[in-house]
Write a structure and sequence with these properties.
The complex is a heterodimer of chains A (308) and B (130). Chain A is an alpha/beta fold. Chain A has 10 helices and 14 strands. Chain A has 2 domains: 10-220, Rossmann fold (3-Layer(aba) Sandwich); 229-305, no CATH class. In chain A, the strands form 3 sheets. Chain A has a 6-stranded mixed β-sheet with strand order 6-7-8-3-9-10, sandwiched between helices. A 4-stranded antiparallel β-sheet of chain A has the order 2-1-4-5, with helices on one face. The chains are: A alpha/beta (308), B mainly alpha (130). Chains A and B meet through α7 of A and α2 and α3 of B.
């Protein structure tokens, strides 16, 4: 490591060859990635891709089988107060005590978190029209999600991890939840990691993307850069482009083929029979997910340096 | 207060949609010099988008000389796009409406109208008019 790198502030997240084995099967393997402070990172992949395993390693609910993960420079260890304190967590089912009132939940939060911000919690509840006296079980699904988010925000943790936070919500509650989350990002210097298997949900909010499949990282980096470094090529189907470098995914019909490829910093020179177009967010994610294990953007490689 | 919207189906990046909406509203007179744009927080909360996207759009508007940030107060419209006053603007709009109706009555499709406009514009550009 150079002295320059040592002087730079620690990234919000740094995973090095991180792996978790359940019995004989690896839930996550050889995961190396960096998320800078202030990023809103989307973690996408199909069910069983290893998303929840990665998140639980980050927040300190699991210990890794190999490698390690650091949050703001400090290694995450399962069930240690120092790890748990640094990360806010919103789980998929927004677990709250159903017989508790909202005020009870806040009291619990205050007792368990030294940096608990009670005024913030009460302000948010008031802004959302959620009465403090109301029992959790009497709240709507959207309100329960908002209380879970408020609990995580009032912890005042610099990193917030959300595991499928809107999966159980209707479209209006989804938009409200994401809007509230983005307002919190605008207000504070927060780093977010949001997992979802609904790609369109993440497109508007993420500036950083991690594609996970089969327990390995397929692609990771800033969204703008990833989009700029890929193209969709369409043209007549021939056998000759099978050996092209940088092909992420290829789809053939009888007469024509479309390929998602990695390109260098300059616009690629394309044969006149072929058309090169920019790729969209969803298209890029799908290309890496469908491309199989061969479609992998090596971690920590400058994208323009990747040829295969 | 000016309100933004987002259309997911256009394929236009969100930050560019915000910039285009301000430009269009300036052209149509919905926004005027001195108007305040909503805060970054309000826009990102209402549209559920990354605050950096809004910041990027506002920077682009500043770069184009159309808006300026005043510390502690917000972002304000400082420029104007339409050279024509409201009178000439209305007359031009009516003339265009009439022309589009004629084109439709003559059987021109929307695609044909667009093609015709761009061809005429190209010819005028060659003469140095448009």
């Amino acid at each position: 490591m150079t002295s320059m790198a040592r002087a730079a502030p620690a990234p919000a997240l740094r995973a090095e060859r991180l792996g978790k084995r359940y019995g004989k099967a690896w839930g996550l393997r050889d995961c190396t990635l960096t998320i800078p402070a202030g990023a809103v990172a989307g973690l996408v992949g199909p069910n069983g891709a290893g998303k929840s395993t990665l998140l639980q390693l980050v927040i300190g609910l699991l210990d890794p089988t190999e490698g390690r993960v650091r949050v703001f420079g400090e290694t995450s260890r399962a069930h240690r107060a120092a790890t748990l304190r640094r990360v806010g967590y919103v789980a998929q089912d927004h677990p709250l005590y159903r017989d508790f009132s909202v005020a009870d939940m806040f009291r619990l939060g205050r007792r368990m978190n030294p940096a608990w911000d009670q005024p913030l919690a009460e302000r948010r509840a008031a802004a959302l029209d959620i009465p403090l006296k109301r029992k959790v079980k009497a709240l709507s699904g959207g309100q329960q999600a908002q209380v879970a988010l408020t609990m995580a925000l009032a912890k005042r943790a610099p990193l917030l991890v959300l595991d499928e936070p809107v999966a159980s919500l209707d479209p209006v509650a989804r938009l409200d939840f994401m809007g509230a989350l983005m307002a919190a990002v605008a207000d504070n210097s927060l780093t977010l990691i949001i997992s979802s298997h609904v790609v369109t949900e993440l497109e508007r909010v993420c500036d950083w993307l991690i594609v996970l499949a089969g327990g390995t990282v397929r692609a990771a980096g800033p969204v703008d850069e990833l989009l700029a470094r890929h193209r969709l090529l369409t043209g007549p189907r021939t056998a000759s482009h099978s050996g092209l470098p940088g092909v992420v995914h290829r789809a053939d019909s009888d007469r024509h083929s479309s390929l998602v490829i990695r390109v260098g910093p300059r616009e690629p020179a394309v044969h006149p029979a072929w058309q090169a177009q920019p790729v969209g967010f969803e298209q890029l994610v799908l290309a890496y997910l469908r491309g199989g294990s061969g479609a992998r953007l090596e971690p920590d490689t400058r994208i323009e340096a990747v040829t295969r | 207060m000016f309100r933004f919207r987002l259309d997911a189906s256009t394929g236009v990046p969100p930050y560019l949609q915000l910039v285009q909406q301000v430009r269009q509203s300036l052209l149509l007179g919905y926004l005027r010099e001195g108007d305040r744009l909503p805060t970054v927080k309000d826009v990102s909360a209402e549209l559920a988008i990354n605050p950096n996207t809004v910041v990027k759009a506002y920077r682009q508007l500043e770069h184009e000389g159309l808006a300026a940030g005043r510390p502690g107060q917000g972002t304000f419209i400082t420029g104007t796009l339409s050279a024509a006053g409201p009178g000439p603007y209305r007359a031009l709009r009516l003339a265009l409406e009439r022309w589009l109706r004629d084109a439709r009555d003559a059987g021109l499709s929307e695609e044909a109208v667009t093609a015709l406009i761009s061809v005429v514009r190209q010819d005028l550009r060659k003469e140095g008019v448009a």
